[in-house]
Amino acid sequence: MTILGGFGGKGRGAGGGPAAGGGPGATGGPGAAGGRGMGIGPGAGPGPAGGGAKGASAIPFVTERDFEQEVLRSELPVLLQFTADWCQPCKAIAPEVEAFSREYAGRAKVVRVDVDRAPVIAQQLRIQSVPTFMVVAEGRIQDAVVGAIRKKKMQELVEPFLPRAAGALKPVELAQLLAGGAVVPIDTRDAAAFKRAHLPRAVNIPLEEIESRLAELHMLPGQPVLYCRAGDKAKTLSEKLVEEGTPVAFLEGGLLAWEAEGLPIER
Question: What is the value of pTM for the model shown?
Fold first, then answer.
């Protein structure tokens, strides 16, 4: 059977470099440098032991029977981990994978494929080393990394494909709108934090005053966009205002995300 019609992204090694065998549909190649990946195939490992001890992990395994339903047809982006019972690096990073799964519950799906119990999937996707991670979104593989990775890297893989909240703007999107004069950033931090550093042309209205000053927001020479330090508080307020029928956009990741993109700051 054919599992996937194409490879939507570029495979990479765990360190960020290209994975070997990077042709269409391929992510394989040797494991990541430093022994963090284990090759599969004859002699690669002792093979599954008996019934296959998988521990008490809440992360489900998929096989050829349910791969299409659970992965290709998923409405959420899927982080797919290829693993095996005998893979020591897989066991070492299991807590990272499970922590990621808990943190992103409801926004992304995490599943595992045991290469010994689902060999057709492993063969069709040319898996040559475990662990291998893939991101599947909109029915296609969008990205892949060979080797053991930390939770932060899993976040980087999946974040571009997460559902967007209503009114959410990424830093680059806001910068483009700001350059065209279409928006006015609203800094919701306290006055002292605003004085230290803020987005260009930002107006300071503390978070606790926003709801009592909505009329003022809509008198500005552009659409207001809320932001805070990390983005969480502005997002929560934006969602509340949407529910109340007064939608106001917000900056995803806040000032920290803006700075991480190397965008200008006024001080």
Answer: 0.59
